Amino acid sequence: MSGFIDLDHAATTPLDPAVRAAMLEWLDDTGYGNPASDHALGRRARAAVEAARAEVAALIGASSEEIIWTSGATEANNLAIKGALEFRGAERAHLITSRIEHKSVVDTCRYLETRGVRVSWLDPDPGGRIDTARVIAALRPETVLVSLMWVNNETGTINPVAELAPLLRERGVLLHVDAVQAAGKLAIDLAALPIDLLSLSAHKFYGPKGIGALFVRKRPRARLAPQLHGGGHEQGMRSGTLATHQIVGMGVAARLAAARRAGDAERLAALCARLERQLTSLPGVLRNGDAAHAAPHILNLSFAGIDGESLRARLPMLAVSSGSACSSATREPSYVLRALGRDDRLAGASLRFSPGRATRETDIDAAAQQVRAAVGLLRELAPGDA
């Protein structure tokens, strides 16, 4: 689309050309073998799957045997949380999470509450972080699992998981981390950091949709009850025929993300800072999230005094988000921003900007101009509210 500017890479990223090229090989008449089959076609596919497993493991400082393939982060989160609780007896368990997790965590925890699990829902501080001391204070003798995202998908705020992980390990409590927005943006070394379970999604770092992974620590072993039963694939934790082409794509995307991480992070942070300077020069523009603990690729701003739906309607050539893509169907103000203390109107008049590898400074400047013009016009139509 000529003139269209994509600043919604936190929702999804385009497929890297190298990833696409690698995937195509496994869609032809020599690459369609079942990786579980014990013949030449199957063994060739299995070798490709294991090579990709090693590439994903390398991105996060894990070993290959600790990577379990899933259909995406939603399944990985479900497997981690339900699997951990069910293995240990859900009817007697206690779980800690926060009110600003991704819907795939929030709704999983709500489901477990209907099954007798007791859940402690932690509130964020005004900057959107979950304080370590608050997590520790919520622990009970029966606490099985803490589930927190590394980077909030709406505000970009980084949670102190590196500080929290060793404290939970000392107390024998499992830690699950949704790292969907952290992988490829922040340095992750699970060889040094005692996280037990960690979720990934390929399409957030220029890989294909429909494929993700769950890191499951081997030593000390994090045991899970499987959620899909069948052929005992993936060490018995996730049955189902593996999609070789998607797995290969995730492997290549992980390798590229590891090689580019530092450079990409520096450039994305500079682009977000450039955009923030231009938009916060307007009156009544508030940043959502802790600027001192922010991921490089997400900027969330609220625009006081205007209607959010009207603002988004006046930005037809700009891809931005009013919140998580997985929550957009509700058309309600972001529950994340409301948890940070924004009222419904201000939460509704918020935009999440997330540039990507192809974003240029000229794109940022053009986007800022479009937003400034839309905000100015809407405030002229409803003066005195900003």
TrEMBL record:
Give one GO molecular function term: transaminase activity
**Signal peptide location:** none
Q: What is its EC number?
A: 2.8.1.7
Q: Which SUPFAM superfamilies match?
A: PLP-dependent transferases
Q: Which PANTHER family match?
A: CYSTEINE DESULFURASE, CYSTEINE DESULFURYLASE FAMILY MEMBER
Is Metal-binding among the key words of this record?
yes
Reactions catalysed:
(sulfur carrier)-H + L-cysteine = (sulfur carrier)-SH + L-alanine
**Mind listing the UniProt keywords for this protein, alphabetically?**
Aminotransferase, Iron, Iron-sulfur, Metal-binding, Pyridoxal phosphate, Transferase
Q: Which residues form the Aminotransferase class V domain?
A: 7-366
What name is this protein filed under? cysteine desulfurase
Cross-referenced InterPro entries: Aminotrans_V_dom, Aminotrans_V_PyrdxlP_BS, Cysteine_dSase, PyrdxlP-dep_Trfase, PyrdxlP-dep_Trfase_major, PyrdxlP-dep_Trfase_small
Q: What is the lineage of its organism?
A: Bacteria, Pseudomonadati, Pseudomonadota, Gammaproteobacteria, Nevskiales
Recorded family membership: Belongs to the class-V pyridoxal-phosphate-dependent aminotransferase family. NifS/IscS subfamily.
Q: What's the source species for this entry?
A: Sinimarinibacterium thermocellulolyticum
Cofactor(s) annotated in UniProt:
pyridoxal 5'-phosphate
Q: Transmembrane stretches, by residue range?
A: none
